[in-house]
Design goal:
Length: 135
């Protein structure tokens, strides 16, 4: 009687436990496989990301060097411009004074040309005393 019921309950519990353990083991194997694949993929992505970070850092260093070179060139050009400004921008004479001075210089050069034109080939010097002022 009772022994057979206990034996039957024990057998059923044992077979249910074995089936549960087998299913749990299969689930674990599947979980382990998926986890290892996932970890492997994430490790690969992490390596690629590290390479991207290194590439970006290298580009940043290169960009900073290029910026420094460009800044140095700009500073040099601005210094040169600053040095040339007084030569190019003469604020002591008005435009009219500069024009008059230039015209005086051109007249003086024409006169000098006529003085040196001993052969009379310059059209501007025709009829003027060629050779005037020469010993």
């Amino acid at each position: 009687g009772m022994l057979e019921v206990i034996k039957s309950d024990f057998g059923r519990t044992a077979s249910t436990t074995e089936a549960s353990e087998k299913a749990a083991h299969e689930e674990f194997v599947e979980f382990d496989r998926i986890s290892k694949t996932d970890i492997s993929g994430k490790e690969m992505k992490m390596e690629l990301d590290k390479e991207d970070v290194q590439t970006t850092e290298n580009k940043l260093v290169e960009g900073k060097q290029d910026l420094q070179t460009a800044q140095d060139l700009l500073d040099g050009a601005l210094k040169r411009l600053e040095d040339l400004a007084p030569t190019c921008i003469d604020t002591t004479m008005s435009f009219e004074e500069r024009v008059a001075k230039r015209e005086e210089e051109m007249e003086a050069l024409k006169k000098a040309l006529c003085i040196l034109d001993t052969d009379g080939v310059e059209a501007d010097c025709q009829g003027q005393g060629q050779g005037d002022g020469l010993p």
